[in-house]
Specification:
Oligomer: heterodimer
Organism (chain A): Rhynchospora breviuscula
GO molecular function (chain A): L-alanine:2-oxoglutarate aminotransferase activity; pyridoxal phosphate binding
Number of helices of chain A: 17
Number of strands of chain A: 14
Number of helices of chain B: 18
CATH superfamily of the largest domain in chain A: Type I PLP-dependent aspartate aminotransferase-like (Major domain)
Structural class of chain B: alpha/beta
Radius of gyration of chain A: 24 Å
CATH superfamily of the largest domain in chain B: Type I PLP-dependent aspartate aminotransferase-like (Major domain)
Distance between the termini of chain A: 72 Å
Protein name (chain A): Alanine aminotransferase 2
Cofactor (chain A): pyridoxal 5'-phosphate
Largest interface: A-B, 102 and 101 residues
Family (chain A): Belongs to the class-I pyridoxal-phosphate-dependent aminotransferase family. Alanine aminotransferase subfamily.
Strand order of the largest sheet of chain B: 2-8-7-6-5-3-4
Largest sheet of chain B: 7 strands, mixed
CATH architecture of the largest domain in chain B: 3-Layer(aba) Sandwich
CATH topology of the largest domain in chain B: Aspartate Aminotransferase, domain 2
Strand content of chain A: 5-15%
Shape of chain B: globular
CATH architecture of the largest domain in chain A: 3-Layer(aba) Sandwich
Distance between the termini of chain B: 60 Å
CATH class of the largest domain in chain A: Alpha Beta
Chain lengths: ~475, ~475
Amino acid sequence: MSFIKTPAVPVESINPKVKDCEYAVRGEIFNHAQRLQEELEKNPGSRPFDEITYCNLGNPQALGQKPITFFRQVLALCEYPALLDSDEAHKIFSSDAISRAKKILSTLTGKSTGAYSHSKGAKGLREMIADGIALRDGYPANPEDIFLTDGASAAVHMIMQLLIRSENDGILCPIPQYPLYSAAITLHGGTLVPYYLSESNNWGLEVFELKGRLDLARENGISVKAMVVINPGNPTGQVLSESNQQEIVELCRKEGLVLLADEVYQDNVYVKDKKFISFKRIIRSGYRDDEISVVSFQSISKGYYGECGKRGGYIELCGFREDVKDQIYKVASVNLCSNTTGQILASLIMNPPKPGEESHKLFFSEKEAILSSLGRRAKALEDAFNSMEGVSCQKAEGAMYLFPRIKLPNKAIDAADKAGMVPDAFYALRLLDATGLVLVPGSGFGQVPGTWHVRTTILPDESKIPDIVSRLKTFHESFMREFQD
Amino acid sequence: MAKPLDYESLNENVKKTAYAVRGELYLRASELQKEGKKIIFTNVGNPHALGQKPLTFPRQVVALCQAPFLLDDPNVGLLFPADAIARAKHYLQLTSGGLGAYSDSRGIPGVRKEVAEFIERRDGYPTDPELIFLTDGASKGVMQMLNAIIRNENDGILVPVPQYPLYSAAITLYGGSLVPYYLEEEANWSLDFNNIRQSIASARSKGITVRAMVIINPGNPTGQCLSEANIRELLRFCFLENLVLLADEVYQQNIYQDERPFISARKILFDMGPPLSKEVQLVSFHTVSKGYWGECGQRGGYFEMTNLSPKTVDEIYKVASISLSPNVPGQIFMGLMVNPPKPGDISYFKFEQESKAIMESLRKRARIMTDGFNSCRNVVCNFTEGAMYSFPQIRLPARAIEAAKSAGKAPDVLYCLKLLEATGISTVPGSGFGQKEGVFHLRTTILPAEEDMPAIMESFKKFNDAFMEEYEDYRGYSRM
């Protein structure tokens, strides 16, 4: 038999949307860091630092943060229920962890974490989450409007897929933004409509800026469908004031925009003069269901729980009609369900031990220790950046990041051009090579043209912060000396 | 002004997507369940939901990984065997900070290495862990690959009919074209290459560029285990037509006959040697949801890439990194599945016992169900050689088909709804999987508990035979 091959269409010609999308958080600088790490492992002492410190990603437990004991007790019991009947277990596990695990197992299909659950997530767990939301906001939540997902990121993809029909559909996104949004919009074939946060105003959100961008997009034939608000902000760390939130909601109502409220950092607020208020609460206290549609995103990856690796999160839908909710359900069902561990954790973070319960004391002390430490680390790094020449850093009121602005001298910008790199990427690469610190260039998040930033997390262990600060300062001084105009 | 969340304004591809496994029948069954009726859910391959117990060893290991403080407790040896303790320590060490940290976006390197070693033991050919990506279930991997391949509606994917409707749903969602090829029911659901060649020619004449071909082996819903000859011919076909082969092999542990054991598409490809072994692009999928593990809720899976260009692999890695990482417990389940207790390990005996019991029972149930269906009037059922389903052909009388038309329903949907109302058995109509025009089926799983099987088959037979009695004209149909 002779083989006659037909003309080739190689898989190299893959979906252009895949080729176009970008995600700087695990992009070039990160890849370079991985190579350096391999090098260090093969040849210790080959670099001016002993280890790579990953400050590129909000991944607390990778940097030593401990999980909440109560949550892990419950998970272990759910995974291996034989423990529930053993006497030894009653010595190791607190009784409220045991009773919570029993309650959770009774809500699971087949009473097992190994069965596919309902495609929205196990009903009993959604009820627990709804209770937690009601307690938080003072307004009831409907378990049928809650969808559990493999992390908030999976939910973002689901919603973008639902909303975007073509590149004529636009989504308003803050600049700077968490690049999941730009990547998801590209992947799903839509158009990102940027609105700039005001750095000099502590990254505040100005409604006239929003309206201006919206009108401009519409003039260019873009049908703007939704607006993303990240509160507390990533990478910018600001916590919106209530009045700001009211303005945003009113704008969305007036302009017929779906509000996509990324609230995954709701349990990360470090300043006494600000509080997290959910957009759901703002809406429930002033608007009818037919006036505005909101999707609120929450995740188990952040807060004080930091359970990134479990991939858990949920969306709560407000002001959605049944026929649209049916479509969301249908898409969710193609993947059958999200992982059960993540679902269980989502129910736990929204319904943690209460005062008076056996585990509360330990839970509370663990939570407070983590949050107060995060607050201290945020301050220490903020002060460090502000002490550096040509660097200004807004306060991190919440979330897990700092986004300092760096006034790069022209010589540095020229050098970057020659190297074929964006200036802040050039700076970040030099920083990495000199110190082993992995930061993400501001260009990965978007910024006002002509300004340069880097994003760092505040997550390295508190004991390491002084050393990190000194390495940053030393590098920065030498960089500025090298490239001074 | 049309609002963005008006039904009319939604992404058309989303509206067009259908996924019958949790579609109309399942929704009706859930309603009835709420009303208090006893429902036997056989619509989805979900073993633990029907009473199958999880294997002990993996649950012990993962529980220890979830709560590492247990490892410090002096009494841990009273609760867990030493090899579970050691294995938990092993996996914790492989993570970058325990189960709560995002892993490498491709999955924990140490687990991918275990997967590579498993594949090498299974097939006798080495493989590169860098080309193995762990995913939140095989479904996510399938979707990632299809998203990478499909550029627009002129890109076609060859999909078997009947197929597991993840494929049709994903192709619709990503805006591609499904190019069907029909499996031959009378030849035990084997591949019919004349039909495949016709399908591809027909698609091309409509301007479709056919990019990939899906095979599901063992088959879902059809349960056949493909012969080596079939797979060889398939690989040659993909070579000639320059198609990437997407080999869904998630049921490779579920084999209920001895004539055709599972052989991976990759093994056969390498057996065939160059030029095929160097040129045919292949992506193979596996999961922890099926086999005798049945850990569906954990969402653990992987895909392995063969002969894809490094640039393509990079792009796929990039997309994976946007979602940061697959869930870590699911990854550990995958590591345990490919690297189970060995003879001599403390937990080996119990593990073997549990696994064997499940496999033997599945084999029995496959037989009970096939025979049960074949004993029913106007029902013909191929033997479930593998996977977890039975896909009997229901020869609906003309009057039943008319009744369905009047009710505005597909004939097999009507049959399945009536079956549900009468017996509480919740199945999925064959139209959800695709079938030849005018031929009707339903899919059920072989998962109900062995002791419940006789009653279930009895209940089905009673309903079916009464249905046939009601709708048949006096001529009837002859049974094969």
